Each structure stands twice: as C-alpha cells, then as structure tokens.
Amino acid sequence: MATEKSTVTASLPENPMLATALNKLEAAFDALDLNEGIRAFIRHPERELKVSVPIYRADGNIQVFTGYRVQHSSARGPCKGGVRFHPDVDLDEVRALAMLMSIKCAIANVPFGGAKGGVCVDPSELTKVELERLTRRYTHMILPILGKQRDIPAPDMNTNAQTMAWMMDTVSALQSESSTAITTGKPICLGGSEGRAEATGRGVVITMVEALKRLGQDPAKVSVAIQGFGNVGSHAAKIMSAEFKSKVVAVSDDTGGLYNPNGLNLDAICKHVDESPRHRLEGYSAEGTKQISNSELLTLDVDVLVPAAIENQITEKNANDIKAKLIVEGANGPVTHQADKILVDKGVILIPDILANAGGVVTSYFEWVQDLQSFFWNLEDVRSKLTEIMKRAFAEAWDMAQEKNTDLRSASFILAVKRIADAIEQRGLFP
After folding, report:
1. pTM (two decimals)
2. Per residue in 250-303, pLDDT tens?
3. What are the structural domains, with CATH classification, of the chain?
4. Which of 104, 116, 186, 238 is catalytic?
5. How many helices (H) and strands (E) does the chain have?
6. 290 catalytic residue (yes or no)
7. How far is CA 271 from the centre of its chain?
8. CB burial readout 220-242, b (16+ within 10 A) else e
C-alpha cells in the first residue's frame, strides 16, 4: 500500500464521540501506512439517510420527528447496528456510532459492516401506542436501505426487543413475507436468540476477566463500580458477582447511585428495580449502603470502573480524579478523546467500547445466522461461542498493543482498520 499522508486531521468535528473516533482512525491509518484513497474510503460513510417521521399523537394532532440511518461500510458484509430513541440524537452522533460499529465488527471478526440509526425523540413522553406508531413509521421511511443481506437493525438506547418486533413485523407486512432476519434482539418467540439480552454485559465481563488475568489479578479479589444500571450494567454486575465473585461496590443510573464498600446486595437491588414503577434505583435503601452521585461513582477508589451509561462521562475535567486502574467501557464513547490521553498517561488500562461491548453484535450475528437457517441454539451454545470469540478478539487486540507499544484503543483500531482496508482492496471498485 503506497503511502500518502492524510490532510484532514487539522480540524475535528465538535461531537466528542465522532472526534475521538476520527482521531483514532487517522492514527491507525498512519500506523498501517495506508494510502489516501483507502483512508478516504474508510473515513466517509457509504450512505446517510435523514427522514421525517410523522405520527398521530393521542390527542389526534400530527407531530413530526427526525430520524436517521447511516451505513458506514459494507466492505466486510451487510451493515449492522442499533437504533436509538433519544432527544439528543443527531447526524454526527449517528455517523460516529456507525463508524464505531464497523470497527467493532472487524475487531470481533464477524462478517458485518457498521450502521446506526436513531430518532430525535424523548420516548418517555410517548404512550406505548405512540411509540409503536413512531417505530413503524420510522421503519417504513428507512426501508429502502434495509435488508437481511443489506442492513440489519438491533436495539440500542431506549429501544428493546419489543421495538425490534415492531420493526420486523412492519418489514414483513410491507414485503408480504416473513422477515425475521431483518432485525436482531427480537423476542425469543419471534426468532430471537437465547442469551441476546445479557450478551453485551457478558462481553464486558469476559474482557474484564481477560485483562485481569494478564495483569496478574484475581477477579474474585477486585472491587468494581458500574455507572449505568440498564441492560448492560445490570447484567454485567450480576455476572461479575455470581460467576466470578467480584465485589460490586457501586452502581448508578440517571436517578443517582448506591455505594457500599463491602459489596452491594445485587439481588435485592435488581428486585427493587424490577418492581419500581420507573424501573430505577431511586428509593432503594439498605444498611451500610449510601446514596452517591454519578460523578462521585466515577472517582471512587476501586480496582475496576465500568462506565456503562451514556457517552462523554469521563472528560478532561474529571480524568485526573479517576482512581481505578482498569476501565472497561460498557457504553459507547463514555471517555472523550482528551480524557483518553490523560488516562493513558496515568497508566490506566482502558478496554475500549469497540472491544468491551462487542458481545452484543457478536450475539446479534448468532441470531441472524439462526434466523437465516431457521435452526436455533440453546443458551449454553450461545454463551460458549460468545466466550470463544470475545477471548480471541481480546487476545488479538492485546497482542497488537504489545507489538505496537500502544494502548488498547489504538491497537483495536489498527487491527480493525487493517481488516477493513484488506477487504476494500480485495473487492476493488465497481464499476
């Protein structure tokens, strides 16, 4: 590959997640000595779609929301990525997440490229009927670029198995055929996979354990703080505690956090969350457990920190206060580019989101394969295959970091970009 230096790194976008992704992308380009043509090919998304999503509200009035679907790369296979419903969704965020999905799929070495979608909406302000209308209309609007061999959506922030069922049913109705493989993360009764709900959290734990092994630490003797007690954080907490005997001392959600230096009673906390009207931590109390803020949780004196909430939680403002020696990114983009530099300089080992939370897309791949074949696996098979792939992906990233004398995020980007670049060069251009 002939070398031509990039000329685009002088100015980065304002969106912190996109800035971080592009910065690491450019560094990987340089490390691999890629020519400018391949750099440009990977740098730019293949397709971006912005749609208007009108729905009837409960009062009979029409409200129009804005939706997006970005396909970053199909060089290694069909595009794959989640759909999020959040009031802060914008095109730059979706671009960043689509790019990160391409990188994530390449690191895990599953035959997908990256995509992402979203609607700018606060789903808590919609009734269930309105949410179904929004989901179905959004699906209809982006259908021209979807397909089980083209682009397969999955759940993301504020979407779930029900959302994927509505999307799958909408496509099936419009195409007059059963299209179970068009989405992943569906209910089991509609072609979903065993183990999909826990998959991202389990992948976080697998990478954490693999890192601790290489650092000479026993998972049963470490303390862990987890920011975010949604699907990823809650499953990670339960798996860490039950299967690896790690001491989870703090958890939090958007209502605040809980801290007990002797370890939290996760069974009681999960029961409280399941039974509370808003399914939140607020209102929970127990002897020895105190209330803390999300910002306090991030700076606790613990061995392992798992930011599993939303992006941009660790910034240059609080990075120097982080005491954990190992950070495992359960969320997408929880550490900004500036904070990343500070943490690396401090000697913190950081397992990046593109590696740590890849368990979700790996098990989505399993679900897609099962749907295409109409042949389904049991939970033990799914867990075994997920563990094998996540261990291999971590080992390859770790070895690359040692070879290049760099951090795990940079090494993961190098590994992924090489695989994407190789696929582009082998495929060539049409016409």
Report:
1. 0.90
2. 999 988 999 999 999 999 999 999 988 888 998 899 999 999 999 999 999 999
3. 43-192 (3.40.50.10860), 197-356 (3.40.50.720)
4. 116
5. 14, 12
6. no
7. 25
8. eebbbbbbbbbbbbbbbbbbbbe
